[in-house]
Design goal:
This protein is of the alpha/beta class. It folds into 2 domains: 325 residues, 3-Layer(aba) Sandwich (Rossmann fold); 152 residues, Rossmann fold, CATH 3.40.50. It has 17 helices and 17 strands. The longest helix has 26 residues. It is globular and about 65 Å long. The N terminus is likely disordered.
Length: 482
């Protein structure tokens, strides 16, 4: 495991003990169980500061003023264009059987269209009509979109922002609540050496909830869905609360790695609960059902598969392997991993081509964030280059730390190495099963890379086959109450 100041595992255990000792989950602010709404964000800040040694991602960020002006411009543009896109307005939507809260991080596919890779494969296969609601990504929408019936949250965002500028519908904390949040902030500072203003954070989250909830309820009243499907539930607590008020079942589709150290899903200790958690969770495979103690009953966790992975694996199954090393990057560990890649590229007797696959959140800033990578001979892969799955199919080796993509690469038969950096604890099962090897320095790779014997990965365990049919059947049965 990572030998930084402490591992993710030990940090997580300290954090959950802290939660349990203080009984935070039972405390309400403004009559709302506030902790479940900020828990993931708080732990991510602690993780970032403690293990990554930084409050924010590496450089290349504009100044606060430039960022503010840029955001205002993009917001104004979106609000202006919204007036000419009546069909995208969820407050004017027509009735549909299933409302999909889709993923704004769409992927550009070979057909030149931006897909929601989690929902576009099955939405037209259901026995019921569907309509999707999507938020922007960095104040932009990916177009042309594959999704046929698509609504934008721009309209709700505009109305909520108007309330913000007019300073109406704000949450008012009692003196007791303010004192409690300040004491909790101090406890976090003492325990984790990190300053977080929980008064401001909780105010922002709960005020946003108070301002947006009436519109979310109105959207549900317009569409009258029999079920709501959500991609990534944490961060969408307001939508889930609205559904629970209307007694509409919420179904989450797994979108990434889920482990017992993931505070968006793991509620293993006694007294840990989340009222705004989906009613059902559809996972990629059986492995993910048992990887975490979820805050819902086990019979409501259903293995279905991952359509994007299954489709691409079949498409590229006949591609031959090359002497090629594929790095799987992420924003949190990108600085260190990219330096590792550059150091590896300088090893003279390593007869492998190296490709560095950027995370979508790194694509537009990597040149400034990782100048050493820009100066190297390493090939950079972004969203416009070869598809990730094609890279898996042709690569002999992959290197990363923790990512859903590493599980996918394993299932393509790629030899997998995990660099000992913060977050590697997420992958402890792979190390225990000997399907991945942990390395600390680039030269260690030479000891394993040419090994003929390699433990094979049971792909079905992670990604169940027949995914589109499985997802469609699961949603149909939930709607039918079976």
């Amino acid at each position: 495991m990572s030998k930084s100041r402490q591992s993710l595992k030990s940090l997580y255990n300290r954090f959950t003990k802290f939660e349990q000792d203080l009984g935070i989950f039972d405390r309400k602010i403004d009559d709302v169980y506030f902790w479940e709404r900020i828990r993931f964000r708080v732990f991510q800040r602690i993780f970032q500061k403690t293990l990554i040694d930084q409050d924010e991602a590496p450089g290349g960020e504009p100044s606060p003023r430039e960022k503010r002006l840029g955001n205002y411009f993009l917001k104004f543009r979106n609000y202006f264009l919204a007036f000419f896109r009546f069909k995208r307005n969820p407050l004017l939507a027509k009735q549909h059987d299933v409302l999909i809260l889709s993923h704004s991080r769409r992927k550009l596919q070979e057909d030149g269209v931006w897909w929601d890779i989690y929902t576009d494969y099955f939405e037209d296969k259901l026995d019921y009509s569907t309509i999707s609601l999507e938020s922007d990504l960095f104040l932009k929408y990916r177009k042309p979109a594959k999704t046929t019936d698509l609504l934008y949250t721009t309209y709700v965002d505009f109305l909520v922002d108007m309330k913000k500028y007019l300073k109406i519908h704000r949450v008012k904390f009692t003196d007791e609540e303010i004192i409690y949040l300040r004491k909790l902030s101090q406890s976090i500072k003492t325990k984790f050496k990190l300053s977080i203003d929980l008064v401001s954070l909780t105010y922002h989250i709960l005020t946003r909830r108070k301002r947006s909830l009436p519109y979310l309820l109105k959207i549900l009243n317009r569409i009258k869905p029999k079920a709501v499907v959500v991609v990534c539930s944490y961060g969408k607590e307001d939508y889930i609360e609205a559904c629970k008020i209307q007694q509409i079942p919420v179904i989450e589709l797994q979108h990434g790695v889920i482990t017992k150290y993931h505070t968006g899903y793991s509620y293993e200790k006694k007294g840990f609960k989340k009222y705004t958690f989906p009613d059902y969770l559809l996972t990629f495979g059986e492995y993910w059902k048992d990887s975490v103690t979820y805050p819902i009953e086990k019979d409501k966790i259903i293995s279905v598969g991952y359509p994007e992975f299954e489709h691409k694996k079949k498409r590229y199954k006949n591609i031959k392997k090359k002497k090629q090393i594929l790095f799987i990057s992420q924003k949190t560990i990108g600085e260190r991993l990219s330096k590792f890649a550059v150091e590896l590229s300088k090893i003279k007797n390593l007869n492998y081509k190296i490709i560095y696959k950027l995370h979508p959140f790194e694509v537009f800033t990597w040149y400034e964030d990782y100048p050493w990578l820009a100066e190297s001979k390493i090939e950079i892969a972004d969203h416009k280059g070869k598809h990730l799955y094609k890279l898996f199919a042709e690569s002999d080796v992959q290197i990363g730390v923790y990512s859903t993509a590493l599980f996918e690469g394993l299932s393509f038969g790629v030899k997998t190495f995990l660099v000992d950096l913060p977050g590697i604890d997420y992958m402890e099962d792979l190390l225990e099963w000997n399907v991945a090897i942990q390395i600390k320095r680039p030269k260690e790779l030479l000891n394993y890379i040419e090994a003929e014997r390699w433990e094979k990965c049971d792909s079905e365990r992670f990604f169940m086959s027949n995914s589109v049919v499985n997802i469609s059947n699961a949603i149909n049965k939930i709607i039918e109450g079976k």
